[in-house]
Give the backbone structure.
Amino acid sequence: MSIKKDHNRFRDIVKGRIKENFQKYLTQEEMIGKQEKEFVKIPIPRIKIPKFSYGPKQSGGVGQGQGEAGEGTGEAQSEDGKAGNSEGQHLTEVDVSIDDLAEILSEKLELPRIKPKGQQKITSEKTKYTGIAPIGPPGLRHFKRTYKETLKRSIATGTYSAKNPVLLPIKADYRYKSFKVVEEKQTQAAVIYIMDVSGSMGKEQKKIVRMTSFWINTWLKHNYKNIETEFIIHDAAARIVDEETFFSTSESGGTLISSAYKITEELLNKKYKTSEWNTYVFQFSDGDNWSGDDTKICIETLKKSFLPYVNLFGYGQVESRYGSGQYLKDLDKEFDGQENLVTSLIKDRMGIIEAIKAFLGKGN
Amino acid sequence: MIKLPQNLVEVQKQVIQVAKKCGLDFYDTVFEMVTYEQMNQIAAYGGFPVRYPHWRFGMEYEQLSKSYQYGLSKIYELVINNDPCYAYLLEGNSFVDQKLVIAHVYGHCDFFKNNMWFSQTNRKMMDVTANHATRIRRYMDRYGVDEVENFIDCCLSLENLIDRYSPYEAISYDLSKTEKEESSNINNKIFSDFRLKTSNPYMDRYINPPEILEREKNKFDQKKKEDQHYSFEKDVLKFLINEAPLESWQQDVLTIIREEAYYFAPQGMTKIMNEGWASYWHSKMMTEHLCTDAEIIDFAQAHSGTMAMSPTGFNPYKVGIELFRDIETRWNKGQFGKEWSECNDVQTKKHWNTRAGKGRERIFEIRRDYNDVTFIDEFLTEEFCVENKMFVYKFDKKTNQFVVDTRNFKAIKQKLLFQLTNFGQPTIHVADSNFENKGELLLSHAFEGIELQPDYMKETLSRLAQIWKRPVNLATVLDEKPHLVKLNEEGFHFKEINTK
């Protein structure tokens, strides 16, 4: 149908509008925890061609029905926009998939693709024999297709006889298998998310953390298929949870960051051997650790087991009323200039987008 | 799209027969069955299978598809004013619904063919829109999709600034003729003006050499040309096509937009009448000729669905059909003319019946000569407003909702007429094309008591400025005071105009 083209064009415009106000949509809670193929409803200002028109609320109109003078007509807004709607209130809902939003996110932030460590590329090149070419090495000769060409030619020129079906290919008849270089997204990438769910993290802090990790996760999933993810939550003790729990649990208790690092270390050593995997670790916390001693242990672990192996270690710290925020300072002091460690302070919801930029923009 | 199934072809034949017997007169009508997806597409394209590429059609389509999916609306039928008329029926509707719709369509076809406001529309519009699509696609290939689309957006913002009555004023609009006469008068005058006086005719060719006279005349012409600027043009699009500094492809795009705007204009001018007329006839034909006994309940159900009223939604079907019926009754009983209007006795009026029997004849005249404005103005009666529970509503700032304002007949009529005049669009015309002698454009808003929506006004002006490529001005009323809005390179300027 020819409308499809116009419809796509309109969808593009809608995407552009979403991009403009992406900050607002990024911090919408109902999206958190959705899968990439799921759709979310996004209210955007109604797209309309501006014309000289009467201001709406002054105008009114003629209606039919019951009611005395002064009584409400029961409709605060009329549907057709003739009256009752002023710009700004006038929203229309569009369905957008989380996948599309991830796309918009990377356009909006101009996020580069994460470059993995060393010279390895996260996309690997593979040759695939899919095509047919008229030239090529003898070894790649395609017998069937060559035979067909010869047959076609000889029938066309009239030299073919069914009684004596001998076919002699000439140079132009030969066909060879040809290959295409296909970029394959490397699957050997693992992302580990660590979240502090201790008592010092307030409701809002947890929300911010979830939003940030949700969008990082969404974006990574969008760009790298079959990515492996692990979710760790911790207070004084840490445990591995599934995605759903990660985005919904709230606990309370003390904070021992090292507990989470221990599990991460184990994962890195056993499941995601850094010689075979590209690994990314993102940690979110309010920066409050139980003791300076624990921080020391953490820094040791980072130095010994994380940083030499992982592609990126991202630390996002939310500001909290109770947290000291010390951990960020400690990390910055200890690892100034370290390439694959990025820290970011997320002040409030508006800071989420900056944090994502800081984390995923790295690697260039 | 598929042709009608056999049982509906039979219905069509039957309807044609009945409609002709009733006196309806229509172009051949081609029916096609479409799926709801196709229906939504065609509706998004304003009834045509092919339109030029533009995102707003996609937007319409999305809205229509959504409201269909959510069960909020369903388009039963679409008719295009074309020769032959094309009508689309929705697949899967019940047999009685299809019957009703086919009868309704013939009502529209008759109206298209016979109402004078449609007399100037292009009856080969199907081909025209397809040609427009081809032309715009070609420009898009040549100048880029974005460039052309942006320009179309600009044009569409001004789409409502046409002079809806101009197609019917062909004679007075023949400017070239009057201009020529005027200029030849002036020419004579100039030749005599520049001629120096001489008493000896033989000296004349020395005192007034023709080349000098010619030079003087050219000078004058030049000056006249400079001075000449549009001082009043209601058709802003036509003005821009002729006067704005446009590339030839832009001129053509603007011409296309204008042509289509004029084609659709009569449909807006006769919404109440057109729907009323079609409803009147489908009802008449169904109940008197077409329905079997078993079908009548289904028909009544569907019919009353389309006639439903809502408090703030004005239903043109309902008002239209009731007005036509009212007129027919009045003219049948002779309730018109001098005697009727001079009679003050309520009882006499109530039982007034001269058995004039002119109802049918009268409504056929009305469908030929009237548009919504004149229709309402002449035939909306106080009794009718009471009968149909009509009222004026307004927005109440205190309660933030619409409330019933009054049931006063005069107020209702005035409000309705105002809404219909120029389609409830503000009337804005070109007032000066060389404003303050700086080549700026001045538009003037004929203020009728309601101010313009400010944000739309600004956006529209900036789009106009993209076309005019010089500062643009608009004289209008803001915050209850006359203002001059100027848009130049620095932005918007609002200046209050002192009226003494």
Residues 393 and 405 of chain B are 5 Å apart (CA to CA). Residues 308-414 of chain B form one domain.
